[in-house]
């Protein structure tokens, strides 16, 4: 097939002021605004026209801020559940699956929906851009960006906690233009972010941007585009486990575009997002309907993160309070923040595998556990149209089928390293 993809037409909008402006480069913030707020892509095509499956995730290119087509992508897959739905007594449960499940045509080699971010973000980069892209991650995001950048010759610096390095497995070696540094054992995702922030102070590097990058959010939003174009209408409920909440923000934004499209109804899905007890900063803030997160001491937060099964849900600085962030998404959709503990997640993951036939990631098991509890507590009607976002799965299957290679860190930094030393080592890598 042709690798040519017409550049998507869009402009950007500040969610703080409402002002619009062109995307003149790697823009992560609205120009000349000092109050915190996300920016959003406004696409010229108001009705989504799907391309063929051979385009992978770029079948949704009308609503992705991309300049090119990258090799190797796979879109999320949506199907109507029978096994899990039967076990829970649900009549309209749809699973959107991102991972490795060949029988369902799911071929994400990193087994995570973080691939949807990586293929969108990297395709937003201009092909001639010589910067080194910098990504901080608790695991899955790093694996996805490493795979995409390795396959498509994009320079990448990954910053990951040493305790999470076992997440960096691949079915073939990662090329040398992808480098990995780590924060020492006992650190967490926030420490990895600190390293990435040091890197992007230097001109050679640019930040991937996290939730601020419209390409990241709109890539994640393809889970909802998959669900709605498969089902034919917007669901009543959306279940997902969250660390930063970026995926839920993306789901809300995709929902708004689909309402404007006009062919799928005018519903706003009720966002039902969940955290892994005892790490629950979003839950605690939402219980008080507080726009601000509550204070959380660093040492206590690190201990909480150590104890949770779903390490990827451990963001201590989520995009919650700012304009267009998770707080606004929850308010607009009358959403809920739920919690599930490790034991509930393990039980839910086992139930999913028994009833659906594939293993799922701990974070997806947290979402499934929250769905089970919401049904038991009658928070959700059994006839409601429900989307369960299984954000990662098939890892056990993939590892069984493939020979694995691990990416090793070039440098491991102390938890509170000397900034100039960090800069020197990072420059030497490239």
Please tell me about this protein's structure.
By secondary structure, the chain is an alpha/beta fold. The chain is 34% helix and 18% strand. The chain has a domain at 77-111 and 215-399: Rossmann fold. The protein has helices spanning 83-88, 114-124, 140-151, 189-199, 214-220, 222-231, 246-261, 281-287, 298-307, 326-333, 342-356, 362-376, 395-401, 419-429; strands at residues 10-14, 20-21, 39-43, 77-80, 93-101, 106-107, 132-136, 156-161, 169-170, 178-183, 205-207, 237-241, 270-276, 336-340, 386-393, 405-406, 411-413. The strands form 4 sheets. Strands 4, 5, 6, 12, 13, 14 and 15 form a 7-stranded mixed sheet that branches. A 5-stranded parallel sheet has the order 11-7-8-10-17, with helices on both faces. Strands 2-1-3 form a 3-stranded antiparallel sheet, with no helix packed on it. The relative contact order is 0.15.
Any chance you could write out the topology, listing elements then pairs?
Blueprint lengths: L9 E5 L5 E2 L17 E5 L33 E4 L2 H6 L4 E9 L4 E2 L6 H11 L7 E5 L3 H12 L4 E6 L7 E2 L7 E6 L5 H11 L5 E3 L6 H7 L1 H10 L5 E5 L4 H16 L8 E7 L4 H7 L10 H10 L18 H8 L2 E5 L1 H15 L5 H15 L9 E8 L1 H7 L3 E2 L4 E3 L5 H11 L1
Parallel strand pairs: 5-15, 7-8, 7-11, 8-10, 10-17, 12-13, 12-15, 13-14
Antiparallel strand pairs: 1-2, 1-3, 4-5, 5-6, 9-16
Helix pairs in contact: 2-3, 2-5, 5-7, 6-7, 11-12
